[in-house]
Amino acid sequence: MTAQIREFSDRDLPIVVRLVNQAFSEAYQFFPYNEETFDARIREGKLTILVAEKEGEILGSVAYHDGHWGEEIEWLFVSEKQDRKIVENILIGEIEKYVKRGAVFTTVDAGSSKIKDWEERAYRLNNGLYHMVAQLDRERPLPMALKGVLMRCLRLNEEKEFVETVNAGFGWERVKIGDIDRWKAESPPFNEEWVQVAEVDKRIVSVVVAKPDTYFNRFFDGRRGYLGPATTISEHRNENLASALTLRAMNFLFERRMESVALYTAEQNIPSVTLLAKVGFEIMHHWRFMHKNLS
Question: Per the confidence metrics, is the pTM higher than 0.85?
């Protein structure tokens, strides 16, 4: 098969949106794109997109993103069944040329037959991600107040300290100034009151952000909340601050008539998974990461 591989252009937008929606229509909680939301996703993620074309027809596409978690192949799909793997491999070979630091990964459903396809391209399984959900059918009892710790909501003038605490807890720039205003615009009625913090000696040391799960609620007509980012600075870990703030956030969402709450956590983060299970979260979906060392 002879297929031309080229970069995505604005004129491809309607076709690629349709093909992406077709390719992932059965994916776990996939939210279909329209042209506006797809264009926003490209710009927000600074995606590099390639398309495979034959005789003027787009056969498939692959997308690359250099983000928080590393260099990632965001999607790969080919619409034609005939010679599908050949076109997929050509697309992968071309998109790998955009990798800058010698390593790239992609995300695959746990147990998917596609894992074998990626292994044939020299990608190897390495950790994974859980989507966890808890029902908000009652108010959870809070632990006893910890000596010297004040649990409260974020105040209007504390964004700088919020950003510093979150980034210190993660060890990299997880959030930045302006994110709270962006969340307000994207997920009303979110505001600072939705951010639960633990304060020690007048310093914020632990954070759990609660938000409406906007896209889920819009597409599935639901009432679900979302938790994240959530973190504690290193010198105050193992003090049960995260569990206390998580329960406060769950109760906060329950008071606002949310029926469930969702979050994402790494499968290898055993303390987090254990904590979340104790407060009622269950694993709803499991993705595996597949990494390749190009160097």
Answer: yes
